[in-house]
From TrEMBL:
The modification N6-(pyridoxal phosphate)lysine is found at residue 207. Substrate binds at residue 359. One of its GO terms (cellular component) is peroxisome. Belongs to the class-V pyridoxal-phosphate-dependent aminotransferase family. The gene is agxtb. InterPro entries: Aminotrans_V_dom, Aminotrans_V_PyrdxlP_BS, PyrdxlP-dep_Trfase, PyrdxlP-dep_Trfase_major, PyrdxlP-dep_Trfase_small, SP_NH2Trfase/AEP_transaminase. This is Alanine--glyoxylate aminotransferase. Gene3D superfamilies: Aspartate Aminotransferase, domain 1 (3.90.1150.10), Type I PLP-dependent aspartate aminotransferase-like (Major domain) (3.40.640.10). It is an enzyme of class 2 (transferase). Residues 22-368 form the Aminotransferase class V domain. Keywords: Pyridoxal phosphate. GO terms for biological process: glycine biosynthetic process, by transamination of glyoxylate.
Amino acid sequence: MSSLTIPPPAALLRPLEVPNRYLFGPGPSNVPPRVLAAGGRPIIGHLHPEMYEIMNDIKKGIQYIFQTENNMTISMSGSGHAAMECAVFNTVEPGESVLVAVNGIWGERVAEIAERMGANVHRMVKTPGQLFSNTEIEQAMAKHKPVLFFLTHGESSAGLCHPMDGIGDICQKHNCLFLVDTVASMGAAPIFMDSQKIDILYTGSQKALNSPPGTAPISFNERACDKMFNRKTKPVSYLLDMTHLSNYWVHYHQLCSVYHHTGPVSGFFSLRESLAILAEKGLEESWRQHKELAAYLYKGLEDLGLTLFIRDKDLRLPSVTTIAIPKGYNWRELLVYMMKNHNMEMTGGLGPSIGMVMRIGLMGYNCKKSNADMALHALADALKNCKKSKV
Ligand code: GLV
């Protein structure tokens, strides 16, 4: 007689089923077969020499896409949120002042993360899609004297690509670190970590990089390293402590296989492959393709009578396009219709933009005219078939 009181779950005795979908939302996006195949390669040990070679290739790929020479360049074992927490936990100590630009969900997240670790958080708040001028940023910095200033480059909840020029200089003048989120924009819109004087930059694997979710490139310059390696208190997270992560990623030659945590071996294979694809294509070509396809999509959306949420086309995020919810329609019904009838994901807003926008993401592997045509066709069909209210 079995000693088990819990039987094997019936669900697990059935084969895994995963549908094939058009992932035309803000991410994850569809993953190219080459990247999927890389993730399916045999597992090796996370501390084997071949793995360090692969991690070194990843580091070089991140330096390329970030346009940085920073030695302290790694990938987190975790999603963009892990990178976000790593940046804040390592560079800020409890009680220190942090300034956060909030014009969508990502600023809200960073503010909450910084509050949870005991920072003194100051929010500059605007409605989704609005910009912060350099003057406003400098005034807030002079007032709050933060050690860290956070700004989102590609605000996926609003479809905004925030200008970066001059902000790094302001941060340096006020002895403040400049932290930038490029999860939704990396590879799709230009950003230059070193020349724009960004001290800490991170992204995620699952957007224009087209890797599976679960790894997140991040880089720290010398100013950031100075601050985080000369702190009085230990960071609140052991997993995200850069003292350990730098031994794992950057100083492993000296220390030779120091165990900290077991990195996501298959995720790193995929990430290396997606960085290789971007290196082969070239960053500037990738930016050009995203911009060109976005312009094509904008025209198609306007031809359908839809209104783009970000009015100034130069401020639109090329990877994620936001549409004002068409008058009289229930946006949830439109999304459900497209999923059901076209097997296609688009999404509504996120955080403060919920109820304001619908979002279409065409990035990396999905950045193709045929996909834009398919998305426009599905939207036209949904607008025709979903009931419009009388009001
Ligand atoms: C997630 O990254 C989103 O923008 O929905």
